[in-house]
Amino acid sequence: MRQAFVLAAVLFFGVPVARAQAPAPAQAPVALESVTPTAASARVEPESVHIGEPFVYQVTLTHPKEQRYELVAPKGEDSSVELLQQTRQRQDGPNDATTSFGLRFSAFELGSVALPDLTFDVATPDGPRRFVLKGKSVEVGSTLPPDANGQGAELFDYQPPQELPIRSWTLLYALAVALAVGLLAWMLVRWWLKRSKREKVIPVLPLDVRVRQSLDALKREDLPGRGLVKDFYVRLSEIVRGYLGERYDFEALECTSFELMTHLRKIPTPGLPEDALMRFISESDLVKYARADAAPEICAQSLAFGYDLLAKTYVVPPPPPTPDASGPRVQ
Q1: How far apart are CA 268 and CA 185, in angstroms?
Q2: pLDDT confidence bin for 29, thresholds 50/70/90
Q3: Which residues 6+ apart lie within 8 Å of 86 measured at CB?
Q4: Secondary structure, 3-state, the chain
Q5: Entry pTM
Q6: Is residue 140 pLDDT above 80, yes or no?
């Protein structure tokens, strides 16, 4: 038991107790020495403004050339005014320098509103200094007329954005343009209809004249002489088939060669050279579909067949009947 007390005493008095060291006291910021410029002036332009209307706080400092003044931006602790913009301009003279500051504010309280004090950091040959300029005041008036209360007009708090109807003539302009376009289109249609009625109807040429003109045009093009034998037979076949279809009143252009000859054999075709027509159809089919070649002499004979077919089969239609001149007259 005695040994236990001795051991406890040794542990209590022999082991140093660690004590928490108290934190070192925070050092207070070193206050800068103040300095005063040679001359300082401040003015508010204008001295009386409406609420919310911007105004300029102009500060001019004259100081030695070796000094430099920098404005510390106001922290905005005063909610009655708001700094919108600031400018700085320096002009050095022979001995002194002039630094001008322009501060653009807006006031949001009525009455005489005090502007914040302005603090300037000054760099001098002896170290940094500070200059504080007492703020001036500005008279802030209401935007309402003097008899606003009597007329029932009051100032209201800020409201969220609201939709306001704005008079617009866009719809009327669009309707006017649409009406003008419609009227112009109607006038153009009427003019076109009148012009179409005034146009002379060109009479259709007789069948033999049209076929002969087509054969003459094909002859002038001289397609075989230019190596276009297939094109020549395609054109000539269309002319011959078109003539037969219109002469005997059937769709000759849509028929095959076999159907064409079968239909012609079923109807009266006085003067039709059937053997020559079959040879022409065979030659043209060989050139168009079997890629056969034909000498210029053969092409000339085929073209001559077209003229011969027209001469042997075309019959001039009788003239339209005329009224009998000897008939009774209406008195």
Answers
A1: 55
A2: low
A3: 71, 73, 101, 102, 103, 104
A4: CHHHHHHHHHHHHHCCCCCCCCCCCCCCCCCCCECCCCEEEEEEECCEEECCCEEEEEEEEEEECCCEEEEECCCCCCCCEEEEEEEEEEEECCCEEEEEEEEEEEECCCEEEECCCEEEEEEECCEEEEEEECCCEEEEECCCCCCCCCCCCCCCCCCCCCCCCCCCCHHHHHHHHHHHHHHHHHHHHHHHHHHHHHCCCCCCCCHHHHHHHHHHHHHHHCCHHHCCHHHHHHHHHHHHHHHHHHHHCCCCCCCCHHHHHHHHHHCCCCCCCHHHHHHHHHHHHHHHHCCCCCCHHHHHHHHHHHHHHHHHHCCCCCCCCCCCCCCCCCC
A5: 0.40
A6: yes
pLDDT number for residue 187: 92
Tokens of 140: 């802030």
Query: CB-based contacts of 124: which residues, under 8 Å, 6+ apart?
Result: 35, 66, 67
Residue (of 35, 93, 90, 98) closest to 63 by Cα position:
98
- Report d(CA 245, CA 106) in Å as an integer: 97
Say if residue 239's pLDDT is above 90. Answer: yes
Tracing tokens 């000054």 back to the chain, one arrives at 122
Q: What is the band of 235 on the pLDDT scale with cuts at 50, 70, 90?
A: very high
pLDDT at residue 20 is higher than 70: no
Give the range among 21-30, 91-100, 114-123 with minimum mean pLDDT: 21-30
For the record, the structure tokens of 330 come out as 């209406």
Mean pLDDT across the chain, nearest whole number? 81
